[in-house]
Each structure stands twice: as C-alpha cells, then as structure tokens.
Please model this.
Amino acid sequence: MLGKLILSLELGRSVHNFMEALKKILGDEDEVDLTPMIDVTFLLLIYFMVTTMLKQPEAELSIQLPGKPQSSDITPMDMLNVKIGDQGEVYLNGSEIEDGLDFDMPDLVSNLKVQKGMRDQLISSGAKTKAEAELKVQIESSGIAEHQSAVSVLNACSEAGVNKVTFSF
Model:
C-alpha cells in the first residue's frame, strides 16, 4: 500500500510539473522581430529611388519623332496590294497571279521587278521623288492561309528588291 501511495505522489508531482510547463508554454506570446523586414523595406526604397533618378526623362532625349511631311504637295504613288487567299493563292491588286503551289512565286517576282523598274526609272529621270515613287507592298493574308504562303510572298518581295513591306489584317 505504501508503494501505491508513493507511486501516486510521484505521478501527481509529474502531472503537476507537466501542467505547469504547459501553462508556461501556452502563456507565452510569440514575438516577431520586425527589424529585418524594415531593413529590407528601406533597402528597396533606396534602390528604387536611385534607379528612378538615373532614368533620363523622355523630354530630354534627342529623338526626332515622325511628323507631317515638310511639303504637303508630295503625293506618293499607290502601294501594291498582295492578298493571300485561303488556299495560298496570291492576288496582286485584285488579279490572281499565283496559285500557291509554287513557293518560289516567279510570276509575282517578275511583276514586282517590273513595277520596281518603272518606279526606279521615274526616280532616276527626276519625274518623281523617291518619297513619291518608292515601291511599297501591302500584304493582306487570309486568317486560315498557311504561314508558308506569307513567307513565300516576303521572299518574292526580297528577291524583287522591295524594301517597304507592310501587313494588314
């Protein structure tokens, strides 16, 4: 009986010690040290202040932006319209010129070379200025045409010496 009494006293003391330790752990509040977060915030603030000071305002850049032509009497010649159909067929100013089967597009290349030659002759004779007579090609592609057709038209323009090409949708 004495053994049971000693055991129960020992058990009671350990339970009491356990409960005290648990109360101490639960009673403590966690503290978060904000010092590192404040340091990082100030470092970021300084970084952004320094980098914005180094950026040159757009007004100070010496860039010549495009504007209206100097003389309004310049009327450029019409640009050539190249349309790519659904199956890759190519139309030049509304007339079918290629069926889309030949990726080299020899008919388109020859027509572009003729147009470029005529316009270059007008420029060299002085009848038209380069701004007026320079050959410009606008490519309009169908939404379902293959990309290879557009690449073939671009290659044809390059082979004909056409430097000004635009796309429209």
Observations:
- Residues 102 and 152 are 9 Å apart (CA to CA).
